[in-house]
Write a structure and sequence with these properties.
Layout (H helix, E strand, L loop, with lengths): L3 E4 L5 E5 L4 E2 L6 H20 L4 E3 L5 E3 L2 E7 L5 H13 L2 E8 L5 H4 L4 H5 L4 H10 L5 E3 L4 E7 L11 E6 L13 H10 E9 L4 H9 L3 E6 L6 E6 L3 H4 L1
């Protein structure tokens, strides 16, 4: 299918698929959407809810008492991985990040994306290049606080059990790929999360919410990013918290 690079409302780029009238990120702002859905209501929410403490070592270095593991469904352009890498230094969390992608973005397309320059923060350019230059499948330590594994496989091949604290569910919309938003897929997501783990997605469709609830998630609607009224956050409640 034909694919083209477009500029979204906040100045950042994304990949548009004309046949589907669908893009990898919101046309109302790729970077804005990523921060709103996955960082604000995903990473920051989880960090604050867990009330994680910071210990100070004898040398005066702050060290978190908690590691976080993140699974991204739809690694795509690498934007979510990039901003999570940048956030890892701010919240002083050690993050192990796994991105799953069935159809990796081409090198030519990556070179046309402007996320690193639009973010305009230290290490963004070199980190974005590194994210896309490292090999698939192996674990790569991008910094002291952030490791990355890129997995080239389809979502229905995920078989992890209680492995992640947080899932970024960033697949193409249910309008064009309804098979990615089914009870079967969300059961795999539920199984992959640890107790009290969180899944966030830009979608707010009723069918998506019902599919999540049917496999055991507690689901809440939240204010959506620019261009969307609502989004969803799902929580895998532990047995003890349900009693």
């Amino acid at each position: 299918m034909k694919r083209e690079i477009i500029i979204t409302a906040d100045g950042s780029t994304t990949i548009h698929i004309p046949k589907w009238n669908e893009q990898y990120h919101s046309k109302h702002g790729a970077i804005q959407e990523a921060y709103h859905v996955f960082i604000k209501y995903g990473l920051h929410h989880l960090w604050n809810v867990n009330e994680l403490t910071i210990d100070v070592t004898s040398s005066g270095v702050e060290k978190s008492n908690k590691d976080l593991s993140i699974l991204e469904i739809g690694f795509g352009t690498g934007l979510n991985a990039l901003i999570t890498f940048l956030e890892s230094a701010k919240i002083k969390a050690k993050i192990d990040y796994v991105g799953v992608e069935g159809y990796p973005v081409s090198k030519d397309e990556i070179e046309l994306l402007n996320y690193a320059s639009e973010l305009n923060v230290p290490k963004a350019v070199e980190t974005f290049e590194l994210i896309h230059n490292i090999l698939w499948e192996g674990k790569h330590q991008l910094s002291e606080k952030f490791s990355l594994i890129k997995q080239h496989k389809f979502f229905d091949e995920i078989e992890d059990k209680e492995a992640f604290n947080l899932i970024y569910f960033d697949a193409f919309g249910a309008r064009v790929q309804p098979e990615l938003w089914t009870e079967e897929i969300f059961k795999r997501m539920y199984d992959a999360l640890k107790d009290n783990g969180v899944l966030v997605t830009y979608s707010a469709k009723g069918s998506v919410r019902r599919a999540m609830q049917s496999v055991g998630f507690s689901v809440e609607k939240l204010p959506g990013p620019p261009g969307k009224r609502e989004m969803l956050r799902a929580i895998k409640c532990s047995v003890s918290s349900m009693q």
